[in-house]
């Protein structure tokens, strides 16, 4: 065959090595029945935090529906969270990845991060259509008018406080769409899920309530007091639930304290992949952390979410739970330090949280 007969626009094309149909059956482009023409090439730039990456994945479903033959490339700092079956090419942010992308052509390129490196990358990408945030005139700017609202809510608290759109509504609008309850996509290791199914057996038919006790280092103002967690654990135990302490390295020492004082189950810290598998065994989750929220929602779990410093309209729980806020409100909007002598998270009553759990996970 001739080089002119090679179908470079086929989804199975792998560059310099044989494609899967060729390896499996010896097929070549001139007579291959597996030819799958790529109709559009789409790049998603979403580098940021794990939770932010997860809550951007509904765009994949939208693009797949709109362009069934599209090829989607995603570049991020956390590639392990993305499902390989749903996204054609997943790249970790690196010099090699950025250099490679700069020499490719896309029909559509989207950047939903406001960080300089993400904006600069979209500026350098060769694409027919660009959406989101770009680098222009030495600063953050919009690729087109659709991202103006999100820029303004990020720059000015008064604009952010009056916003009633969820993050998903905002990013869909930035891309020129209307959000229609497209769901999260998540990379789940089914073998690990099966391994950790032992937790269900150990619970002996009790509902497992995952308690994500920390709040991350960036926003310490979201931390619920330790005495409240202890009281909640005891209420759950007395009501016939199985509390399961969850967290990362930052929460490890405190979770050991909770375990010692209450006898609640605590398994330790794990890789992200295993953490997701453990979370999959829970019937419900209580958390103040957005990463945990997005993992739980991606798994379809019931959710009780603490919120104080953020605009609650930003969060979409898909009808799977409720948001609980301090009865006295909060004075430190998007603040890492509290402006009060008594922090507002003290004003989320344990009984209120317990009653919410009973409503959603009876």
Written overview of the protein:
The protein has 362 residues and is α/β, with parallel strands linked by helices. The protein has 15 helices and twelve strands. Strands 3-2-1-4-5-6 form a six-stranded mixed sheet. It has a six-stranded parallel sheet with strand order 9-8-7-10-11-12, with helices on both faces. The mean pLDDT is 94.
Summarize the structure in short.
The protein is of the alpha/beta class and 362 residues long.
Secondary-structure blueprint:
Layout: H1 20-25, E1 40-45, H2 50-54, H3 58-66, E2 70-76, E3 89-92, H4 95-101, E4 105-111, H5 116-124, E5 126-136, E6 139-142, H6 148-155, H7 157-161, H8 167-174, H9 190-195, H10 198-203, E7 208-212, H11 226-238, E8 242-246, H12 252-262, E9 265-266, H13 272-279, E10 284-287, H14 290-298, E11 302-306, E12 321-324, H15 350-360
Parallel strand pairs: 1-2, 1-4, 2-3, 4-5, 7-8, 7-10, 8-9, 10-11, 11-12
Antiparallel strand pairs: 5-6
Notable traits:
Rossmann fold; six-stranded parallel sheet; 362 residues; 33% helix; 18% strand; 12 strands; 2 domains; six-stranded mixed sheet; alpha/beta; 15 helices
């Amino acid at each position: 065959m001739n080089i002119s007969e090679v179908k470079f626009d086929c989804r199975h094309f792998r560059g310099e090595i044989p494609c899967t149909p060729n390896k499996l059956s010896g097929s070549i482009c001139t007579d291959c029945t597996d030819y799958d023409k790529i109709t559009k090439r789409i790049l998603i730039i979403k580098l940021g935090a794990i939770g932010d990456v997860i809550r951007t994945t509904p765009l994949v479903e939208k693009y797949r529906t709109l362009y069934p033959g599209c090829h989607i490339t995603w570049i991020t700092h956390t590639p392990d969270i993305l499902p390989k079956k749903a996204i054609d090419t997943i790249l970790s942010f690196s010099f090699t990845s950025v250099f490679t992308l700069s020499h490719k052509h896309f029909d559509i390129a989207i950047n939903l991060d406001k960080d300089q490196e993400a904006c600069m990358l979209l500026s350098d990408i060769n694409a027919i259509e660009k959406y989101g945030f770009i680098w222009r005139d030495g600063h953050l700017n919009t690729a087109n008018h659709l991202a103006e609202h999100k820029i303004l809510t990020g720059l000015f608290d008064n604009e952010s406080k009056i916003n009633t759109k969820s993050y998903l509504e905002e990013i869909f609008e930035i891309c020129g769409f209307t959000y229609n309850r497209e769901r999260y996509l998540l990379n789940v290791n089914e073998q690990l899920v099966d391994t950790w199914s032992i937790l269900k057996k150990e619970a002996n038919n009790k509902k497992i309530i995952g308690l994500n006790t920390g709040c991350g280092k960036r926003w310490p103002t979201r931390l619920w007091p330790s005495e409240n967690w202890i009281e909640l654990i005891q209420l759950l135990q007395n009501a016939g639930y199985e509390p399961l302490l969850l967290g990362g390295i930052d929460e490890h020492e405190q979770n050991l304290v909770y375990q010692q004082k209450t006898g609640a189950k605590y398994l330790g810290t794990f890789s992200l992949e295993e953490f997701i598998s453990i979370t999959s065994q829970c019937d419900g989750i209580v958390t103040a952390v957005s990463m945990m929220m997005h993992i739980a929602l991606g798994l379809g779990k019931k959710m009780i979410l603490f919120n104080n410093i953020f605009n609650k309209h930003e969060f979409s729980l898909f009808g799977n739970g409720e948001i609980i806020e301090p009865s006295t409100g909060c004075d430190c909007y998007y603040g890492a330090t509290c402006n009060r002598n008594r922090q507002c998270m003290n004003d989320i009553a344990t009984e209120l949280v317990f009653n919410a759990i009973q409503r959603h996970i009876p």
